[in-house]
Amino acid sequence: MNRKRDSLEKVTTSACGDDGDLQSGAEFEVFLNFRGPDTRLNFTDCLYHSLVGAGIRVFRDNEEIRKGEKIGGELLHAIESSKIYVPIFSKNYASSAWCLRELTHKVECSSKASDKLTLPIFYNVNPDDVKLKTRLYLDDLEKHEKKFMRDEVLGWKEALTEVATVKRMGHEGQRVRVHGEIINTIVDEILTKPTKRKSNLPDHLVGIDDHVEAIMDKLNDGSHDVRYLVIYGMGGIGKTTLASAVFNQISNQFQGYSFLLDIRESMQHGRMVELQKQLLSEIL
Prior knowledge:
Elements: E1 2-3, E2 30-34, H1 36-39, H2 43-53, E3 58-60, H3 73-81, E4 84-89, H4 97-112, E5 117-118, E6 121-122, H5 127-130, H6 135-145, H7 150-164, H8 179-191, H9 209-219, H10 239-250, E7 254-256, H11 263-268, H12 272-283
Parallel strand pairs: 2-3, 2-4, 4-5, 4-6
Antiparallel strand pairs: 1-7
Helix pairs in contact: 2-8, 4-7, 9-10
């Protein structure tokens, strides 16, 4: 496992969606929602590549190429499969019906699942603009009322005000000024959230906590040194379960990690190459 670093010096390869190009069934950790002409070529592009470089699966949508008025298909799956929603509120954000539709659907998804988070970013706007306490977004919403159903626009207003009141992680209420500093903070915040894949464990494990704590002490949690730990004993006493529990507890501290099972059996049956592929796929 590669320990996270204070800076993102090393860029790794990550499978990710880009500009609405989704692989069927793909799962994403972060969904970027933004108004293309405002931020696509500057802040959003830098944020996207920094997240990908940190090994985070990101989907960024291109609302400018969307047709029709309903969210469906692969875009719907991308929104529903993502764990962290990052709406980037800019001056012309509310002029895009697609941005508002995505935002509203994400609010609906978050209300039905406790494991989804929202990280709003205010790019050259204030939270009060998004809370509709100024004319900036209200003017665009009034234009939408002439083209779309009143109830739909009302839903957009409610979604805007709800997301704008979400407690910011790290730099609450601040406007984006220095891109690099803010982006590094956002990446670090997302990396610490429990969105990564976990090793499956049975529910209600009994008597494992003390063993996990003992192993964590031996690993010297928080150290940047390399640690190797061997758990040995007769079959069936819970070595793999214990290793899985430790893996789940510490994996979010690393940019890259992998949990390989049945190594001896795989080697005996000539499946070593498969294990190598799994390792490279997961850590990259």
